[in-house]
Amino acid sequence: MRTHITLDDLDDLAVGAAILGTGGGGDPYMGKLMTRAAIEAHGPVRLIPLDELPDAFNIVACGAMGAPTILIEKLPSGEEMGRALDLYERYTGRTLDALIPFEAGGINSTIPLMAAAKRGLPVVDADGMGRAFPQLEMETFNVYGVPAAPVAIADERGNTGILEVKSAAKSEWIARGLTIRMGGQSFIANYGMDGATCRRVSVPGTVSLALGIGRTMREAKAQHRDGLESLIEFFAGTHYEEAKVVGSGKVVDVSRRVQNGWSVGIVTIEPFRRGEEPIRIQIQNENLVAEQAGEILAIVPDLISLLDVDTGEAITTERLRYGQRVNILAVRVPPIMRTPEALDVFGPKAFGLDHAYRPLGLLPQR
Amino acid sequence: MRIGIDVGGTNTDAALMDGITVKGACKTPTTADVSSGIIAVLKEVLRMTGVAASEIQAVMIGTTHFTNAVVERKRLLEVAAIRLGLPATRALPPMTDWPNDLATTLGRHTFMVHGGHEFDGREIAPLDEKEILRIAGEIKARGIRTASVTSVFSPVTPVMEQRAAEILLNEVPGLAISLSHEIGRVGFLERENASIMNACLADLSAKVVSSFRSALKELAIEAPFFISQNDGTLMTPDYVERYPVLTFASGPTNSMRGAAMLAGRKEAMVVDIGGTTSDVGMLMQGFPRESAVAVDIGGVRTNFRMPDVLAVGLGGGSLVRDDGARIGPDSVGYEITSKALVFGGDTLTTTDIIVAAGLEDIGDRARVAHVPAKTIATALDTIHRMVDEAVDRMKTSAEPLPVILVGGGSILVSRQLPSASEVIRPENASVANAIGAAIAQVGGEVDRIFSLEGTSRDVVLDGAKAEAADRATKAGADPSTVKIVDIEEVPLAYLPGSATRIRVKAVGDLVMA
User: What is the DSSP letter of A130?
Assistant: First the structure.
């Protein structure tokens, strides 16, 4: 059982977080560098398994909000997250005992680790998305009744704010507006809860999961084994259980536009196997649904990740280009993310899709 | 008439071209001082073609010199790496994630200053000019001769980088300064890395350019000369002196463009078959399609656009196993002349198969007489299948494309390929690099974030296109030949006002005197 996150874990974590990003969540590279600096200065971060979390622990979820394209240019000061957490503690009048990532995919897998290293706090081995999602209300914390407010928000210039909002959806709406005024990038602490609640409402083991994905890919490469096959075996031993390659081919078209601030589009992939119909993947920051000849191969909240055929690296939606050769990996989300109330918040309907959710592995065999 | 020269690690090649006709081409070994190798190859190409030095209108040089210097950590200057962006960016200081030896070679003189802009051009903080003055003092005190300046969102507005340079130059006359907005695109760390690497090459670039200059002078070639950059376009010597980093990876680009010219195609797949691997890359409008992933140079992450090349383990020395069903990825490599069956060795290679099949006459044919006909047939099928699959993987549409074969191993392919509309084997393919340099064009590029609010996409795009074309013309392109070769739009998620990152690239033919 892993008890600490050390410097040696960060490469694996970034690889795993990119795959859990399902095309979104931002490039974990930057977060990896920041976390490395924090761990070098302050030492490893203790990781607490969800089922060992003391009932009375005071926990808050945290991470970054904004456009990945901003983050790759305007690097953080590194103090933003700490400032939001300070404000949160001051406002609630209580000291924090542990942090939990609000998002397991992309750069937000690393931000809580960086902040925890600096504060000497442990991180809970769990999160509220089990992957990456585009909006703050798309959290199992919200699904299972934890209020989003108060929300503490901070930028690199020392501007901070506390939001008291009526609903998780409102917190997203208002925080997003502030984020834009903060230059397109902010750091947020919200969904405060106690340990007992955290155990009930979180997607367990997702920090370890990201590490395990990275380790599996690394070891497969070192042993010249097929990384995807190893990955599928690895998922089979987790509560995600079902993973499979639903297609392989070449990106032949990427059409993108912005709609209400979201980057939406359709990627068309022509299968390597001749005579197969093209596969279309609908995107809203993350990959939402993969279809072929009118049949759904995988659909949100299940994970859809595009991996470079040669390197196995996950390709984010903003980096998708004509001509890339990809494997389409789909992974079924764990049971806590498949309940009717969870699907109301981040199922196909929440993204305006007409299709019903059909969990991967329960699809008709092709 | 023009001459293209490729200064490689092993050979210096030259090709003399009249328009698109190759009048003559030759190779000599690269020399340590570079210039004597260039002189030798120039003399030879002029001699063999009987062309007078006065008839040469332009000389184009492609070189791996600067890349090699960074990879070998040699001939590099210490750099003052100045960043404008505080209070943002503090989490990752300059040269974070650099290999330790390279960072140490460059002296780790890093400075972070208040300044920088937001994506929409507002200031993060005003430029701290006092701090720049203090850094100028440090630069003098430490005897540093070159500096890089990188400001947040300088591709959107370069004013702070320019102002900082002005102050520095005023305080430290003669300081070589690399400004990031002239080197890279959005993507801060990568652009900063490239700017620092550029700065450390300031001395070497002046030396290399002057050795090129003196070589031409010695042969009384008065024509202007240019150096090719990684996107297959040309830079003037003055520009290379200031921006040597832009020559990184010009080699594969020149090779592919040379192949395109030799074959007379602009839309094609180039397959360069060597002894161990085949490199497959796609030409679009005569330029290599670029890779979308980050590229490490000398262990440093950059976002240069490199040709997207797929390497597969098939070459003239590849091992043949399983009665021809399995080929490579291992190869006898340069030992082919002792290890292949036809050369008296004991290893069955692809070259042996070609000889056994009667397709080429290399070495001693009697030594492959025992290879079973079935093995030969299977191996030929495998070879063609491997090339065909590689071509197919690199294609961007299902339409068959012409395939241009270059390299010594191109004898392996004797049949049509299902993925190809035709297979072309041009002459002079061994000096494709030098030819690629000779035919290089002049380019101009725009890459920044535009707001579409209160305007239309067409207006913004037209503006960006005009700006790219104008940059190409200013760089020496004939305005009547300038055209837009690439447009890329990436809308920025989570931002209002339809902020869109737009990149436009224009190229044109060099104005010839």
Answer: S
Q: Which of A67, A252, A321 sits opposite B493 (nearest CB)?
A: A67
Task: Write out pLDDT tens, residues B322-372.
Answer: 999 999 888 887 788 889 999 999 999 999 999 999 999 999 999 999 999
CB contact under 8 A, B188 and A318: no
Same domain? B106 vs B150: yes
SS3 B120: coil
Is B91 close to A183, i.e. CB distance below 8 A? no
Per-residue pLDDT reduced to its tens digit, B375-392: 999 999 999 999 998 898
ipTM: 0.88
> Which of B157, B385, B394, B494 is the best residue to mutate to test the A interface, defined by the most A CB atoms within 10 Å of its own CB?
B494
Separation between Cα atoms, residue A259 and residue A265, nearest integer Å: 9
The DSSP output letter for B492 is: P
| Chain B touched by A330 (CB under 8 Å) | no
Do residues B15 and B7 make contact, with C-beta atoms less than 8 angstroms apart?
Answer: no
The pLDDT value recorded for residue A287 is: 95
Residues of chain A within CATH 3.40.1610.10 domain(s) are 4-204
Q: Is residue B417 part of a domain?
A: yes
Where does B173-266 have alpha helices with state H?
Answer: 188-200, 202-218, 237-242, 250-263
Tokens encoding B493: 């998620």
Q: How far apart are CA B182 and CA A298, in angstroms?
A: 44
Which range marks the domain in which residue B210 is found?
Answer: 1-75+203-248
The answer to whether A308 faces chain B, any CB pair under 8 Å, is yes
CB contact under 8 A, A261 and B125: no
B328 and B422 co-located in one domain: yes
Question: Both B208 and B68 in a single domain?
Answer: yes
Whether the model clears a pTM of 0.90, i.e. scores above it, the answer is no
Q: Which residue in this structure is represented by tokens 């010594």?
A: B408
Decide: A85 and A119 in contact? Cβ < 8 Å. yes
Distance in angstroms (rounded) separating the CA atoms of residues B377 and A278: 34
Q: At which residue do the structure tokens 């670029």 appear?
A: B290
What CATH class does A241-351 carry?
A: mainly beta
| Distance, CA of B37 to CA of B41 (rounded, Å) | 6
- CATH class name, domain A4-204: alpha beta
3-state secondary structure of B460: helix
Distances (CA, A) of A349 to A341, B102, B154, B477: 12, 52, 41, 54
Q: CB-based contacts of B440: which residues, under 8 Å, 6+ apart? A: B4, B60, B226, B228, B232, B233, B234, B254, B257, B510
CA distance B37 to A64: 55
